[in-house]
C-alpha cells in the first residue's frame, strides 16, 4: 500500500506532465528538421568538393537517421496522447532514451561537419581535396580484391593522424559509409604527410582484406614454437594493426614512409623506449626499426642502413635497464623472419597472392624513383599524369637524398594537390 502511494500522482499532474513530454518531443522534432544536408549549407569552390560517392553516402546516412528518429518521436508523441494510466516514471524513461538517440544522431552528423566545413577554407579546401585523391589511389591497389569505400580527409590539431574506418559503427549504431582520415595540420604541405595518410589508409586495407585475423594465428604459432622469444612474438602480435599499416606505407612510399614516421615519433628519450601495457602501437624505437626492416626487404639499398645508424645514434640503447634492453634484443633478433612472414602472407581475400605481390615494388626502387625525379624536373607535365602515391614517393626520395629543398618540396606538392583536386571534379 505504501509503495502504491509513493508512485501515485494527482490526475491533473499526470496530464500536465504528459503534455510537458509531448512539448519536449515536439521540440526534438523541430531541431531534427533543422539538420540539413551539407550540400545546402556549406559553401566551397568546386575543386574542394567532397567526392560524389562520399557525398551520397553521408547524405543517405543523415537522411535515413532523420527519418528513423522522426518516426520514433512521432510514435512517442502518439503514445503520450493515449497513455492512459501509464506511470509517469515509464514515460520519462522512454523520453530519456529518445533524447539519447537524438544526441547520438547529432554526434554522427558532427563526425562529418568538420570535414565538410574545411572545404570552404581558402587553399586548404583544395589541398584536402587533393589528399582525397592520394588516399583513393593508395586504397585502389586492392580494388580487384574488395569493394572500396569512399575516402575523405580533413585537418586537425594533434600530433598524429587517425582514421574512422568505413563500415564501422557510428554513435547511433549506423554503419559509417565513408572512411574519414584526420591529418595533423603541422604536416601540411610536405612529403611527410604522405607517410601519415597512407599509414591510415593501411588500416582500412587491413580491415577490407581481413589481414589481422588472418595473420595472428601464424604469430601465435611462432610464439609457441620459439619459447626463447615468445614475449617478442606476442608483442608483435599485439602491435600487428599498426605494423601492417606501416608496412603499407613503406610499400607505396619507400624511404619517405620511414622518414615521415621518424618525424612523428621523435620524442624525448623517456617516451622512445617506453612500453605501455595494452598499447596497440609499438614503442617508437622499435617501430622505426620495424619500418626499416620492411624497407630493406622491399627496396634493398644502402640508404636504409644509413638511416638506421642515424636513428640508433639519435637514441642509443646504452643506459637502458636490463629488461627493456633484453626485450629490444629479442625483438631485433626476430625482425627478419617476422617481416618476411608478413610480406609472404597469403590471406584468403588475395586469391593466392602474397602481400608483397600486390604492392608496386617493381616500379618504386630508390634508383627508379631518382630516375623519375630527374625526368620530371624537366617535364612536370609528365609528373602530373602519374599516380599520386608515386609522386609522393618520388618527391619523398628526393627529399631524403637532399635533392630538393623543403621550400621547393612545399611548392611542388601544393601544386600537385591543386592539380589532383581539379582533375577529380
* Overall mean pLDDT: 89
Estimated helix fraction: 55-70%
**Rg calculated over all Cα atoms:** 27 Å
| Largest sheet features | 3 strands, mixed
Shape: globular
| Tally of alpha and pi helices | 19
Would you list the SSEs in sequence order as H and E? HHHHHEEEHHHHHHHHHHHHHH
Care to count the β-strands?
Answer: 3
Q: What's a quick, concise take on this entry?
A:
By secondary structure, the protein is mainly alpha-helical. The chain folds into three domains: 2-120, no CATH class; 189-361; 363-423, no CATH class.
Sequence-ordered SSE layout with sheet pairings:
Elements: H1 2-7, H2 11-33, H3 52-81, H4 88-117, H5 124-139, E1 151-156, E2 162-164, E3 179-184, H6 192-208, H7 211-225, H8 230-238, H9 240-253, H10 255-265, H11 269-272, H12 284-298, H13 302-314, H14 322-344, H15 355-358, H16 366-378, H17 380-383, H18 388-400, H19 406-423
Parallel strand pairs: 1-3
Antiparallel strand pairs: 2-3
Helix pairs in contact: 2-3, 2-4, 3-4, 5-6, 5-19, 6-9, 6-10, 7-8, 8-14, 9-10, 9-12, 10-12, 10-18, 12-13, 12-14, 16-18, 18-19
Amino acid at each position: 500500500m505504501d509503495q502504491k502511494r509513493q508512485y501515485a500522482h494527482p490526475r491533473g499532474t499526470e496530464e500536465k506532465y504528459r503534455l510537458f513530454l509531448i512539448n519536449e518531443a515536439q521540440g526534438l522534432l523541430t531541431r531534427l528538421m533543422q539538420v540539413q544536408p551539407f550540400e545546402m549549407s556549406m559553401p566551397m569552390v568546386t575543386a574542394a568538393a567532397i567526392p560524389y560517392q562520399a557525398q551520397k553516402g553521408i547524405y543517405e546516412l543523415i537522411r535515413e537517421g532523420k527519418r528513423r528518429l522522426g518516426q520514433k518521436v512521432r510514435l512517442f508523441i502518439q503514445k503520450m496522447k493515449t497513455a492512459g494510466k501509464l506511470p509517469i516514471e515509464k514515460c520519462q524513461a522512454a523520453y530519456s532514451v529518445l533524447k539519447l538517440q537524438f544526441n547520438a544522431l547529432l554526434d554522427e552528423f558532427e563526425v562529418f561537419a568538420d570535414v565538410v566545413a574545411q572545404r570552404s577554407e581558402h587553399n586548404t579546401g583544395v589541398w584536402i581535396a587533393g589528399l582525397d585523391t592520394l588516399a583513393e589511389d593508395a586504397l585502389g591497389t586492392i580494388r580487384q580484391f574488395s569493394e572500396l569505400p569512399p575516402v575523405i580527409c580533413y585537418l586537425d590539431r594533434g600530433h598524429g593522424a587517425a582514421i574512422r574506418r568505413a563500415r564501422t559503427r557510428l554513435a547511433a549504431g549506423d554503419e559509417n559509409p565513408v572512411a574519414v582520415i584526420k591529418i595533423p595540420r603541422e604536416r601540411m604541405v610536405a612529403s611527410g604527410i604522405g607517410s601519415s595518410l597512407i599509414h591510415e589508409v593501411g588500416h582500412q586495407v587491413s580491415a577490407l582484406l581481413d589481414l589481422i585475423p588472418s595473420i595472428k594465428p601464424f604469430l601465435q604459432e611462432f610464439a609457441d614454437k620459439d619459447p626463447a622469444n615468445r614475449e617478442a612474438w606476442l608483442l608483435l602480435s599485439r602491435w600487428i594493426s599498426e605494423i601492417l599499416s606501416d608496412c603499407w606505407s613503406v610499400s607505396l612510399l619507400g624511404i619517405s614512409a620511414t622518414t615521415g614516421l621518424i618525424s612523428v615519433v621523435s620524442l624525448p628519450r623517456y617516451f622512445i623506449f617506453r612500453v605501455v601495457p595494452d598499447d596497440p602501437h609499438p614503442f617508437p624505437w622499435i617501430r622505426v626499426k620495424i619500418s626499416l626492416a620492411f624497407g630493406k626487404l622491399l627496396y634493398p639499398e644502402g640508404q636504409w642502413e644509413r638511416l638506421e645508424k642515424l636513428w640508433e645514434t639519435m637514441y642509443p640503447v646504452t643506459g637502458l635497464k636490463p629488461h627493456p634492453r633484453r626485450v629490444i634484443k629479442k625483438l631485433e633478433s626476430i625482425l627478419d623472419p617476422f617481416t618476411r612472414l608478413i610480406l609472404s602472407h597469403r590471406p584468403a581475400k588475395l586469391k593466392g597472392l602474397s602481400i608483397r605481390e600486390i604492392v608496386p615494388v617493381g616500379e618504386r626502387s630508390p634508383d627508379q624513383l631518382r630516375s623519375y625525379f630527374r625526368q620530371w624536373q624537366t617535364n612536370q607535365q609528365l609528373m602530373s599524369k602519374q599516380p599520386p602515391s608515386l609522386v609522393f614517393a618520388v618527391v619523398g626520395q628526393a627529399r631524403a637524398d637532399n635533392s630538393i629543398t623543403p621550400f621547393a618540396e612545399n611548392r611542388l606538392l601544393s601544386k600537385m594537390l591543386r592539380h589532383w583536386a581539379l582533375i577529380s571534379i
